[in-house]
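User: Can you predict the 3D structure for this chain?
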Amino acid sequence: MFFHDKRLQYNAKPDRPDPVFAKHLQEVLGGQYGEMSVMMQYLFQGWNCRGPQKYRDMLLDIGTEEIAHVEMLSSMIGWLLEGAPVSEQEAAAAANPAVAAILGGSNPQHAIVSGLGALPSNSVGLPWSAGYIIASGNLLADFRANLNAESQGRLQVARLYNMTQDAGVRDMLGFMLARDTMHQNQWLAAVAELESDGLETTPCPSSFPLELENRAVAYQFWNMSAGEESRNGAWASGRTPDGKGQFEYLAEPQPLGPPLDPPPPDPRTFGTPDPIAMAKMK
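Assistant: Here is the predicted structure, written as structure tokens:
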């Protein structure tokens, strides 16, 4: 059961209208790494979780928190659009040539489609897609995907923070940045605990027998570009993080398969009469 409290999780009101920034803010609402994505990702992972209750509970805790973030952003976008005259848009474009040339001012769908409200879409109007979310049923794979989502999301919010001087907007974004800091640390801790609990290990999935993979190439780093600067990384020598092998650096990797031997042409593709089929037709 979900229960809605009329109080927002945090402040979500700007100092003044800004339809151009409302368009920007759509990215962290309905973009690939926006709040709609992490909300749905964590909730579906939680609903589908068959692991220990602590992991399921944690996923649903954070997924429910993200619902409130969607509400905060939607409210902020609404206020940024409220009563904004055309002159606000023109002034923003005049002050920043990049805004005028690339972003093109405000989002016309805010006026035409949503009636000065938020949209389930990104900053260029592409609708939010369920294809953005990951819920594989493997907790280690999912938690790593969650860490990536929070990292990308925090990066975008940080960039947005530096694209406005509005104190009200910055106040809300500062709160969201702090929560993203928590969530990145949370997923790092969850990955470590999952592995320490022995539920899943690297390589993931650990249920696939290692003897069925080609172990000769399992820990080789292939230098596939000019130069050998990549040799200097921790991924090129020494013990592998999974503790099951040693990295090997191949400066000049060679193809391991034979020359390409495609199947013969199909008469149906090239329209060449098949003599056997023609004889049967007669």
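Residues 218 and 245 are 8 Å apart (CA to CA). The first helix runs from residue 19 to 25.
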